[in-house]
Task: structure prediction
Amino acid sequence: MYEHDVIVVGAGGAGLRAAIAAHEAGADTALVTKLHPVRSHTGAAEGGINAALQEGDDWELHAYDTMKGSDYLGDAPAVETLAQDSPEDTMRLEHWGMPFSREEDGTVSQRPFGGLSYPRTTFAGAETGHHLLHTMYEQVVKRGIQVYDEWYVMNLAVTDEDDPNDRTCHGVVAYDVQTGQIEGFKANSGVILATGGPGQAFDHTTNAVSCTGDGHAIAYRAGAPLEDMEFIQFHPTSLPSTGVLISEGVRGEGGILYNNEGERFMFEYGYANNSGELASRDVVARAELTEVAEGRGVNDEYVHLDMRHLGEERILDRLENILHLAEDFEGVDGLVEPMPVKPGQHYAMGGIDVDENGQTCINGLYAAGEAACVSVHGGNRLGGNALPELIVFGKRAGRHAAGEDLGEPQIQTGYGDDVEDETDADLPVQPGEAGLETAGGVAADGGVAADAEGILERTVERERERVDRLMDRNEGIQHAEIRQKLQKAMTDHVNVFRTEEGIKKALRVIRECREQYQDVYVDDPSRTFNTDLQQTYETRNLIDVAETIALGALVRNEFRGAHWRQENQERDDENWLKHTLISWNGGEPRIFYRPVILEGEEKTYEPKERSY
Amino acid sequence: MSTQQQEPESQEAPADPEMKGTQSPQERRLEEKEAGLDAQAEADAEAEGETVHIKVFRYDPEVEAKQEPRFDDFHVPFEKGMTVLDAVMYARDEFDSSLTFRHSCRQAVCGSDAFFVNGRQKLGCKTQLADLEQPIRIEPLPHQEVVKDLVVDMDHFYDQMHAVEPYFQDEDTPDPADLEEQRQSPENREKIKMSSRCIWCGACMSSCNIAAGDNEYLGPAAINKAYKFAMDDRESEEIKEHRLRILEQEHGVWRCQTQFSCTEVCPKDIPLTEHIQELKREAVKKNLKFW
Result:
């Protein structure tokens, strides 16, 4: 058994920042990650970091843009914290040596991004995430923070009180991918889940293959609710063949979208008469698919993104990486032809329900980054707001888990007094029940109070048994088949445009996947680097996460942000200024709601029509 | 289909067709192969459309049949734009789930999937199948210990990266709370730009003859990492001298024999050899200063 004060699971932007903060607060801190830190998906972020740095800009404008962009489903205390802390935290990165792009006077450059009233996106070429990730990993190396790389976290060790608010997380169980050894990691003061997004629930995604929602699923099964999972961001510019991301920076620098008739459709067809290509992402993604649906798509599939007019010098200076991506993955030279683009799954606005200190309703369990939902993005995340989320809330979670007092949170978590249960959801199938056999979940202590070590040991034992069971079986179904079926159903039915019938179809497929998963087995008999086993675990996690996405999408019968519903194409503030929460309660999802907080420090963000 | 070899447990598996239900797909494939059915399956696959023939290195210290390294053949249906990574993923998902390799972002930025493809270090995700001569040989990176199949032990690579003190160091760092960044000219930023693109894939180290013969040689990736800091004007002159001292050690920059193999294989086009030469010049300049 390994033991530390703070265990951070995942070593992307949020995890690294959390670990640095916890270490600086004096905690013995360790990172446990299924990849090596520099392989984390944060490295693929391209665009930049929103921070009100310049004269003429201020954090209040940033907060306002973010609330508007969220379609008024962001919680104001979280949004204001993001806007207030981002400038200092961004400058901290600069002092750690991050190679930001520069102006002639040597100051960091900023550029316009969609939905921003001021050009406040700080960037490093079109590879900001890569530099952010490496810069923070360098600081982890500098501080000598312990990293357990290529250790896959299988489950949390949590006590089994009836009410999740009374439960305590004592650590995690992980297995060493290289050797197959399964071990407990005891956390004396906190576990921080910074495991990134669940993009692999979809088959056309900009996300890495490693983005399987592991943190979401293990927190969910331990009793922490997942919040606003229906809000999935589809990025307007991903490459059609692979889903590889083409940064919003292209449009930020002046790139133009054309349909197959060479029309600049964002203006021609009135999708966004003021902002055009720089309307927020949900607006542009719907516009593109509408063009395709109405027969104005290129090859009936995508539209064109043109940056040729920016000139070679500017492209090479600010978007060089985009040229390489377009050439390597589509065979297109962005200097001489427009690039094919279409919407692709990109970011989960929802996630593990946490307050502005990163804490879940379970004692000692935290989440940060894309895995968490504070909520700063509400119904739609603005480009350039993910990286400040990582550093601002990663840092806060790290400090709080290490025992620093960050003040009383204003955001509630779990099942407080203010929640309202869903009572009339018309579900096509009884979700959730199947698959418990391999669910893991809350470490039972038989109702008898057990010490942290006992709980951890029992959880280790359960995971060892689970692995033995998966490896001992000689027949059944393999994870790849289930995963492909799940991904296809989600892309077919829970995509940019959603219908009640489609979402119900997806839920039925998810249910089938659950049932098939009862017969899943691992064909590779080796304990050495058994990716077959790891992916079998990941697939189970994807089933749970996909179900919460589809359930959230089904019950939210309104159109808000990225969540469009054919049956009701208008935002319904009277009934839906509230967060969707889904918890795993005794093996069955419970759906409930919590009101959104629109009251900020000094003002209330009144919902307005969102026009760009 | 694939030329699977027997797993240890399958040697005892009865060949009785009635027993098929208890066999793993690997065992079934093996049996089909023995019965000559794989030739038929292959013919079928080819009749349906174009396939690509890949030969993938296999080794697993734990599985008896894989302890002797070998190559397995896979015939993967081809679609325009398919990469080496797509092909091995297809082979794993459809033919043999024990086929093991690292991969994650599939967009050339996580650096996980550097393989030795037709005798050259390449990133699997950005190497088009159409550009390669068949059969395509896919092997783990040379000069690194093989953990299993295409997975190599990266610990030595990471150790070398860490040996150059790969983090920004400046004694006079002002408090960022006052929101003043350190100024850096666009020219200086441009100077370090290429060096900052390294994704730690290890292709350069694997291609370097010197690194292969001298385990202590820092190697192109680590030296490039040091270059990024040494050339950054935001660090002080004293720190730069400290960095040059690390680079000048016995197994540092002077080991480089400018063979350019690292530069040739770098998937991010970093002029690694040039960077090493420049650091040699800087080291000489520094030493002359003290004469």
Q: What stands out?
A: The first strand of chain A starts at residue 2 and ends at 9. Residues 436-448 of chain A have pLDDT under 50 and may be disordered.
